[in-house]
Design goal:
By secondary structure, this protein is mostly helical. The protein has one domain. It has 7 helices and no strands. The protein is rod-shaped and about 100 Å long.
Length: 139
């Protein structure tokens, strides 16, 4: 009796300890989607900056990108939308937008994006500064 209980106990222990074995046939498995980077690396960089934990770090990252020469129109629009969406304080939004407006490569599409989303700035003084910067640029 003791030998049979011992044998059953060993058998149960072996089954529990062995775990499961899974066999996957690579030919039949569906390929995983690869994460695609945007064609414009600046857009990928803007998205990476957006993931930073601290607002001040995000603001500085956006400002560095806004100063960049040769920033594409698509990247400028993405920067405007992202900065207005990811920054909580008007002062940070204002700094990034003013930096972009002062960039020699500032484009009409970015201007349009700013004007369309100007209501995302809470303070009238911030809105006024942005509008004045755009006006100065055109003069």
């Amino acid at each position: 009796m003791k030998k049979s209980l011992l044998a059953i106990g060993l058998f149960v222990s072996a089954v529990c300890a062995a775990g499961c074995v899974v066999v996957v046939n690579e030919e039949t498995r569906e390929p995983r989607e690869r994460t695609r980077l945007p064609a414009d690396q600046s857009i990928a960089e803007i998205d990476a900056v957006s993931k930073l934990a601290f607002e001040s770090d995000r603001k500085q990252g956006y400002k560095r990108i806004a100063q960049r020469q040769g920033l594409s129109a698509k990247a400028q629009v993405h920067l405007v939308e992202t900065a207005l969406g990811k920054l909580a304080f008007d002062s940070g939004k204002e700094e990034v937008l003013l930096t972009l407006i002062e960039n020699p490569g500032f484009c009409h599409a970015a201007e349009q994006a700013i004007l369309e989303d100007l209501n995302r700035l809470a303070f009238e003084s911030s809105k006024k500064k942005i509008l004045e910067a755009i006006s100065r640029r055109k003069a």
